[in-house]
Every structure is written in structure tokens, then in C-alpha cells.
Amino acid sequence: MSKTRLSAALGLFALLASPAAAEPVMVHHAQGETRIDTVPERVVVTDWAAFDNLQALGVPVAGVPGSALPPYLADLVPADAPRVGSLQEPDIEGIAAAEPDLVIVASRSRTAYPTLSQLAPTIDATIDNADIVSGVKENLAKYGSLFGREARAGELAAALDAKVAEAREAARGKGTGLVVVTNGGRLGVYGPGSRVAWIYDALGIPSVFGTVDDANHGGDAVSAEYLLETNPDWLFVVDRDAGIGHAGAARATLDNELIRRTTFWQRNQIVYLDPAAAYVTMHGVTGLMLLLDQVIAGYRGAA
Prior knowledge:
Elements: H1 3-12, E1 25-29, E2 32-36, E3 43-45, H2 48-57, H3 92-97, E4 102-105, H4 113-116, E5 122-124, H5 132-146, H6 150-171, E6 177-183, E7 186-190, E8 220-222, H7 224-230, E9 234-239, H8 240-243, H9 250-254, H10 263-266, E10 270-272, H11 275-279, H12 285-302
Parallel strand pairs: 3-4, 4-5, 6-9, 9-10
Antiparallel strand pairs: 1-2, 6-7, 7-8
């Protein structure tokens, strides 16, 4: 996000920086705008990326999803925090019982917004996958102003920018890349506008294809023959099964005679991305930083 856009986002919520928050503020989000009358004290999130961002800012929560908890966040979730349904189906009654003064929904739970907004002030933190890095920074700026954590939000945004720049430099001149997802023993590819589009866009890694139809959970279905034919220099792997808490099998899925003939296999240029961060919480700053560190380590390890 540009300095101008970041300043605008911070300015939009500046009135909320005061603990008193005497004046109501309209918070603009993916499904409109929501009036916030005071600094929220009991926050319920129905999305793990929202929890990730609030945790990074030091904001406590009063309710979290009850499914697909990313392992890297597991030690940070309070044991007594109420579980408020799955990522796709929030528990409306459970959320009401938590008596929140703010509810945050996002991509998977955003369809519950109309109902939840009748119970408590609700905002939709959904991010456009076409520009994940800017979206994460905008949400950090929004939360930072909302909870009086502007300085911390600025630090996190600066650290993210620096990490992206470091990853871009590590990838520079290292050849083409392809992001694949393994799902139940099947292979798919992710392209522009997907949950891992940042691999291509933010990091400038050249793709081996133009466009793909990757709207479903397993990406655009491909075969081992496709990987051999396109033969990318680097392969970035998302294990969807492991990402949603099932037994992962990405390595076994990739280990076959055809794939062993590819450039990425023979040069050991495969980066297995953290499954939960890549599939569930790619819109959280901690998860995104974890993924960037893995990309950087992959390139430097092959140097």
C-alpha cells in the first residue's frame, strides 16, 4: 500500500485512537460501513486471519472460530476463549452469548454479515487476493486506529514491506515458478487473483502460464504431465489437506516418475509452504511473514 493510501486509512479512523472515543465513527469495510460508538472491548472474530492481525497488534479477543486452528497460532489462543462455530458457519447463538461490542467476519464467514450485524457492530475484513500485501496493511491500519495501536500497526506494515523486498531480491533472476495445491491425492495450480497470487505479483516471480481457472478449493486440476511440460524452475506447494487439519500427503503426491524428471525436482527447488498459513490465514500478517520467510529460505538454500 502506498504512503498516501496508508495515511488515508489511518486518518479515516483517527477519531477512534482516543480511549474515550466520544464521537461515533463510521468504519468502511468490504460490505459497506459500520458505526462504532466506542473503542471495542469484547471482540469476536470468525476468521483466523483477523485473529492473527489482532494478536500481532496486542488486541485480546472474546471469541474465536472452532475449526481449522492454524498450528502456528495454537499457543496464542486463550484456553477459555469461546469457540463460535466453524469458519464457514459461525455460531450465531454462541456469538450473541459472548455479548460482543464488535464482530469481525471475513472471506469464509462473510455471508453471516447481515445476521451478525443485527446482533452487534460487525465489519467484513475480506481482502482482495489480487493484492494481498496491501490488503493486510490496510486491515492493520484499520485495527490500529480502532484500538489505539497505530504505532504498532505502522511497525508491522514496515516489517512486511521489508520482508517482501527481501523475498523479491532473493527470487530475482532465479527463473520461473508455479504454485500447486495438493488435495486428496490430486494436483491443481493457483494463478493470478488466487490466495497465493502474491507469489507471482508481489514477489515478481515469472509464471509458466497465462491464466487458469482456479476458483475451486483444489485450484485448476492438472496432471504430472502438465508439470513436466511446463517445467517451472521452482515449485511452491500448498497442502490443502494439512491446511484444514487432515493428514497431509503433498510429498507423496509429487513423488512419481514424471515429476522426478522436472527441473524443480532434480535441483531440489521445491518450497513446501506452511499449509495453514497458505490456505487459511494468508490474510494475516504473521502468517504472511511466515510464508515469505519460507520463500526466502528456499531461494537462499539453493544458492
